[in-house]
Specification:
The chain contains four helices and six strands. The chain is α+β, with helices and mostly antiparallel strands and about 120 residues long. Strands 2-1-6 form a three-stranded antiparallel beta sheet. The protein has a three-stranded antiparallel beta sheet with strand order 3-5-4.
């Protein structure tokens, strides 16, 4: 991967996360995202994209745990998983996407709307 592309992906991730841990990054796009891409930190590259996304979802939850009241998911967490991953609560999912099962299940009632149509991994050398 070109150095410029790695820098572009890292900048996107920094804007969303605020601070990176040095883990590899996975960039993805869904059919509902228009021009937006999402970037998550992952433990390693893998073909198990759903598993990587679920792990990233829980990682975001762990980062926000100190800010959650009584262990409940709140607006701060909802905004974080939407901003970083594009994830929404399943009940907020468009009926057409539900009907055609065009979403990726995460956990705790959250999904990523649309079909994932682009995936790129990057890590610093």
């Amino acid at each position: 991967m070109e150095k410029e592309r790695i820098e572009e992906i890292k900048k996107t991730a920094l804007l969303r996360y605020g601070k990176l841990s040095g883990k590899p990054l996975m960039l993805y796009h869904t059919t509902t995202d228009g021009l937006n891409y999402h970037v998550v930190e992952v433990e390693k590259e893998s073909d198990d994209i759903a598993g990587l996304l679920e792990a990233a979802f829980h990682d975001i939850g762990d980062r926000f745990t100190p800010y959650l009241k009584n262990g409940e998911l709140n607006l701060l967490f909802d905004n974080a998983v939407y901003t970083i991953m594009g994830a929404v609560k399943e009940e907020e999912l468009d009926e057409t996407l539900k009907e055609y099962e065009e979403y990726t299940n995460l956990d705790l009632g959250y999904v990523i709307p649309g079909l994932i149509d682009v995936i790129e991994f990057c890590k610093e050398d």
